[in-house]
Specification:
This protein has about 180 residues and is an all-alpha fold. The chain has one domain. Helices cover about 80% and strands about 0% of the residues.
Amino acid sequence: MFLRSKKYDKIKSLERQVRTYEYIHEKRIDVYKEQEQKLVDKFEEEVQQASFRSKEDEDTLEKLRALSKGELVDKCNDIIVSFLCSQRNIGMAVNDIPPYCTRCMGLLADAIHNFPSAGRKDEYMEYFLREVARFYKLRKLMIDFLEKNDHTTYGETRHHIHHEMIRMLHGMDNLH
């Protein structure tokens, strides 16, 4: 029979602890990924699909029609500047942006990409108004989603990104 040394037993004990910590860490990552996927699915349902199905709000359209073309262009300019500044702030803060925030940024970019060209010609003014109204509808859907799904389980950095997104959306010029 072999006699084991205390050193050998200590090493084996540490190896078991390391394997246990690695297992726990892998399980936490799996839980985070699962939670993240649920949020992405929820975002697709509550924001992305809802924005595609919905029409622009008539009340918002009336408020936009009451603005002069210059005021409307200024509002759109403020929206674009706010979006780009927030994108920079979020991008500089972290490399690991939650997927629902990335989708949020993508939807916003899609919503505002026609602002510059649509606002140039008077014959496109109604189209321009509808695009801006759709943007405000999407913005409201996103704010509601983000405020309702405030998760702090992802750590401080992702929590910061989540709140930066809310701040960005609230900072975009509101009509009301």
